[in-house]
């Protein structure tokens, strides 16, 4: 198996493990960020064509010597949106901490109500 | 040659991700997450995506970590996990 | 412990399934369909040399408008969730001499680099998204170096709104001239820069829209940093 495919699957699974098994909310968000990086890497490596160069058609690069531009365009915007949504999730976590004084999800579940 | 570079970067990414998830100090975990982003940026460059590499280096490695560190500054730094850190990351 | 074992079994099943699926997708093979059309026609249809930029701004400009809207909503959400009556910077220690001097010296160059990235988005790798992020990094640098620094909200928030309005306005002019939203009127109707593809003054409205996106991304990410670094005063809840 290709190392990039392996790395992206491994990153997605490690992030998923953090979301499922960890109790700290911030650690879950770290896992979510890692998962996002894995998904981006998977998209880019699916669009790669071996032996070709970046899709910038300057001198000497004809269209049949460039890699697929569409996954790159998708990932380009997805990264920026990712950091904005992560910041929003972090502000929810800050509010949660101000209310319950803990970041442990099980304690928060117990304290609720 | 390029195969070995790919294997090396993939291994670094996976190892940093495991550290980021397993370290109990959240500040260290954020640094691990940043390392994943940085190596992913190098991987994007080798996969002929310089645009994505630039955006990942600017955002994944700088702004994302900064936002996480501000949140840790306003909450707490250590994760209280009763089972403790696994032997594979304890040093 | 049960939770952990359950999680490991679950991710192993998902990993096996993903590996099976990716086994059908050989690495590094040419399987472009739409991408081939874009690569072959990008120069005469949009005038941009960088195909990624052409896809982001021209072919899928409406999509990018949606992404910018999501960014705006997320930034507004951060501001709303962290809103308190009295907030200020609470950092006590001033940055070291290296940090403050470096911030003063490097700030114009970082800003210039960000502007360079988003103006040359149609020629070189980069564009509005990394350029805006670089500008936001420059402001983050200032926030880290000086304890009392705060961006000028009277300039920043109107600028953010104007950039978004400008994007929609460019699209509406396209609707009036060419018949659909985000029609590239500068390139296809006026034909400005047809003879110098690969130079700065080409590619129709791509530099204009990428400049607006750069300003919008920069101001919004700076706003997120500003909202997250300020803490409520004691008893000011």
Automatic annotation (TrEMBL), chain A:
User: Where does the sequence pass through the membrane?
Assistant: 6-21, 28-50, 70-97
Q: Does the keyword Oxidoreductase apply?
A: no
GO CC, one annotated term: plasma membrane
Tree of life domain: Archaea
Q: How does it sit in the membrane?
A: Multi-pass membrane protein
The record's subcellular locations are:
Cell membrane
Main localization, broad class: membrane
By its UniProt entry, which Gene3D superfamilies does this protein fall under?
A: 1.10.287.3510
Pfam families for this protein: Oxidored_q2
Entry keyword set? Cell membrane, Membrane, Transmembrane, Transmembrane helix
InterPro entries with a match to the protein in the record: CPA3_antiporter_subunitC (IPR050601), NUOK/Mnh_C1-like (IPR039428)
Transmembrane listed as a keyword: yes
User: What protein does this entry describe?
Assistant: Cation:proton antiporter
Q: Which organism is it from?
A: Thermococcus litoralis
